[in-house]
Batch of 4 targets.
Target 1
Amino acid sequence: MKKMLSAVLLSGAVLSMAALAAKPAAITTALSDTARPADDVKRDGDRKPAEMLEFSKIKPGAKVMDLVPGGGYFTRIFAKAVGPEGWVYAYQPSELDSFSKGKSPKILAVAKEYPNVSVIHAPINDLSAPEALDVVFTAQNYHDMKDDFFKPADTDKVNKAVFKALKPGGLYIVIDHAAEKGSGLRDTNTLHRIDEAAVKQEITAAGFEFAGESKVLRNTKDPKTANVFDPSIRGKTDQFVYKFRKPLKAK
């Protein structure tokens, strides 16, 4: 029995390595980065970083903003994926200072480890970028702009600022925990979820085109009635992964 289990585990590891090897070099380099903390690597199975990089079109030389980077899970990955010719701006909203529980120092430490990462520490409503960006990426944060973390965040203003910061054709990637359909903003402060239709409506109203969805983080078994931090669902919530594009003719 032990031999059979070992064989299964070995087979799974070999398949994972083979799958990673089949990815573009920038992705394999990013995920093989030995500087990544062990706790980050453990989360890869739930967060699907290789698929996120592919979906976001983050490539060597790209200029990327990691909007609300937390402890820098994606910041580290982006830094390696864009390489020395690219740049990553970790936008850490100052509204989170009282809630961050040490994460602001963490992202500053990440910036010291990666020479192509810089931290922007400013109010969320003052969002801007030092140069035109290829991608703005935010994971599991959009709902927070509607709750007590960011009051008085103005998502209309934030989305317009993201639009302005991107190059024509640039991408805005939004990942978040899905709420029940039709619930709007009802659950943002209680369950930390948001109705994906509300997100799509707000972002397209800022001038973006909806450019597609990845379903790799979907979980149809999530009843969407539990707080995302509930042990019964944490790390396994139904998440939407949306891609929005700034039109090529936009200024």
Target 2
Amino acid sequence: MCSKVIGRKGVGMAAERSGIFEGNDPIAIAQRWLSEAEKTEPEDPNAIALATVDADGLPNVRMVLLKEIEADAFVFYTNFEGKKGQELAAHPRAAFVMHWKSLRRQVRVRGPVERVEDAQADAYYASRSLQSRLGAWASDQSRPLESRASLMAKVAKVTATKGTSPARPPFWGGFRIRPVEIELWADGPFRLHDRFRFVRGTDSQGGWTAARLNP
């Protein structure tokens, strides 16, 4: 669990972090901001731009949907055999940014990545629409596709063979990012933005140290 205790630097500026920045746990603040964005953002307030790296160290960035904020981690789901799944298996570290135009705020996260437990992935998969569950079986994510017609033919074949209650594909599941660094950003007048960077401590308590950054 993420400690509520933060380092001495963070305590020194606790009073400055009031209003939307109030609190010593940046994950809890991110959850609060997402809850606000769900009321104001017109589409997919949980969309994140997720960055991974390939075998040559070249970054890849794409939009995915964040499905859960845990006490000490952020969770999303994907095809393990797709580009991002392969890159995360080879280099289990990632970063993402979540930006809301309606709130004029963003959250940046970096940290190591691990797979979500099977039971948790099964539960989320079962909560998806039937069409999405069948689509997970039909798509060879990131690999060349002859045509959309061939994809839809594969969906029809999967529908006929898997029925109305398909099990989770073994090649599909969740990833959990355990952040070691989180930056909270809010737009300010004349580009004088508010930025706070939280770094997770390495001691047994695993608390957070906070620092204000220049815009």
Target 3
Amino acid sequence: MLRPHPLRDVVLIVDDAPENLSILHSLLDKSGYMVLVATDGARALDCAHRLPPDLILLDAVMPGMDGFETCRRLKEDFRTRPIPVLFMTGLAETEHVLQGFQAGGVDYIPKPIRPAEVIVRIASHLRNSRLIVQTRAAIDAAGQAVVAVAPNGEVLWLTPLAQSRLRGSLDVEGRLPAALCDWLHGALRASEDRPFELLTASEELIVSRLRRGAHGEELLMIQCKVGSPEPAALMQAFRLTPREADVLYWVAAGKTNRDIADILGMSPRTANKHLEHVFEKLGVETRTTAARMALNLVTPHIAQ
């Protein structure tokens, strides 16, 4: 849905107290924000799905669905998960503050609110959120289907292209398929870059490790499998020997060095030596990157 004022940040205020809504609405409107309001958790979820705001000010204590449960539900949905949530509450006990952060909130504003502080906090979180959104949008605009995964298999964030390709493959809790999690854990233990083939209802995908993030999350690339180029094409494109081209062909097909050695009738050490020569000629350091370059000969979209 298109926003009527694309240059104005949208803030959703969720509070069951009319006087609080009035004060905050006036404050934010005068500060240049487009303001939406909801008086309970259910209306907040509906509003956030119909017109996703840039930030949510959420009252922690409300009748029915409280702010903590509302925040948890927002964070369960990929469409609303990236929206920063700032809790507003008069509950100053540590357990309530921690509960807000555990539910997915990024900040805590005590009541009664201090207008200047609220505006500064909102501006700071919007700035940080905007940088994250722009970075992910840039990745998606470049045609990269990337997903960040926590050690337990939970999807932390993903680009729209990755979301499209994984649609229907994630479980109800937003985690990767069990087989894919097992592959990732095995790859981490063995320090391997071997890709994983994921068969969905509509296509076959190639999942490759990109790198580990600053907080332990794994960044994965999701590609559509369209087949590997013939060894002759690899020889010509990368100036490889026949054996090097054979090795690269099977690397692009997702085979391990031991698999390649068995297929080509050579020792794993010889297969590894050929692969080292391939890396040198391609100017790469990992088999994932080498496979991606090989698959690009079939169609540039394979690396997208």
Target 4
Amino acid sequence: MEQQIRTLTARLLASRSLPRTDPLVRRALVDEAFRVDLDARLSAVGLQLIDNPYAAHVAVALADDVHEPVFGASREYAASNVGLTRDQLALLVVIWALIVLPKRERQINRQKLADDGQGDMFGKDAPLAHGEEVAGALSEASLLADFAPVLGHKTYVQGKLLSRLAQLGFIERRGGMIHEGPLLDVLLDYRLMADRIIYGTLGEVLSEAGHPPPAQDAFSAPEPDADADPDDLTD
């Protein structure tokens, strides 16, 4: 087990994220003793495993108690610990809201991307889905048309903003479409982000347009049952 933990730790540090379907990652998610040893190994160097059961990947991040010692001396840390500028952060939040919010609703309802919810008597009992069967993609041209005038201009958004988000692993750009990257869902706190967007910014926009905001529990992702079969939380 020691060698497997050593291997998994090294791979996480080298790759920043790994898919939940990876054999060693799956072991860390279902084997309590293995997870305890992995957490101890990461904690010894100021890191922690980030595991969101709704996300298709796991990642490593700094432990909470070392954020200030590591980033406190940098002015960039006030906005982002990966050095994102304000316009990059703004575009990241927009993309997160357009991809992750509807994806989470489909996951909660055990509904795939092309499914209208009809004809599946046992859909609510299906394993939690990940990947492109629930995550939609954005047209890059449409995103540029809507937000490039606000964030600068088309060339700037493509060359400086989208390229940086792709480089960091938040998004993937393929064939003119923007897809969810391995870090988009796992590193951004859904509960915090969803509340601020749906009942804050989006709620104000809807109210000004004369529409009531969404119901308080419309996008609430419940915590997974601690006694649930771990296989129900992974592909």
